[in-house]
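[Structure tokenization] protein backbone as discrete codes

[Encoding] learned vocabulary of local backbone shapes

[Begin record] amino acids and matching fold tokens:

___
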Amino acid sequence: MSKYKLLALDLDDTLLDARFKVPERSRAAVGMAREAGVRVTLATGRMFRSAVPYARELGVEDYLITYQGALVRHAVTGETLFHRPVPLKEALEVIALVKPYGYPINVYLDDNLYVAEHTRESEQYRIMSKIPVEAVGDLTVFLEKRCQDPTKVLVVSREEKLDRLAQVVRPVLGDRLHITKSKPHFLEFSHPLANKGDALASIVGHYGVGQDEIIAVGDSYNDVEMIDYAGLGVVVGNARPEIKERADYVCCSNEECGVAEVVEKFILG
């Protein structure tokens, strides 16, 4: 039997290929891991409702880490282990700081996605996530009216613009929010404890799994905390060099079924 008891998988650019599909080899490998008694969780920046179809496709019947770790909810029962939203005050600050730049902003409430207006970026996001996008006008007015803490706030732009924006907002909000990039063109703002590492620790604590019994596989900056936390932190070959430096093992790329390689080598092998 494998010494590993839990497998945590990022979705985009890790398990999924460029068409947002699970390659057959990786699907089969995840199924064999589950048959071997290994729990599987998906650890993604996606919304819960965007992650659930992949969980069903893979037969995953455990808690899912969604919204970068802000919402951990069971794939089958819908039971919420915890929800750590962005405090409304900080969410409004993010919007105020970003507004002068004119970058599109996504706001997530009750597992729904809201934007100020429909744009090319929101349409691309809708296609990727397969989730409807609702335009509500001024986001500040919308949030103040709802008077509710959003699960996450996301800004969309070119990477070099987001890097400059991050340099502006981190001194203001960096001690109150978790700020990271999930993709080069997504800058994400979440609760300070909403990261995949803390979420993974909560799940394994719930299941009684040891830290050294975890494999976590990812590719980007938002995966660093869980890669560092897991007993075996794996990074796919298509990741950037600075992410690969954090890995215990670098597998082949998402297009080459890196997740299958990990399962075959460390769980089935």
In short: The longest helix spans residues 159-173. The chain has eleven helices and 14 strands.
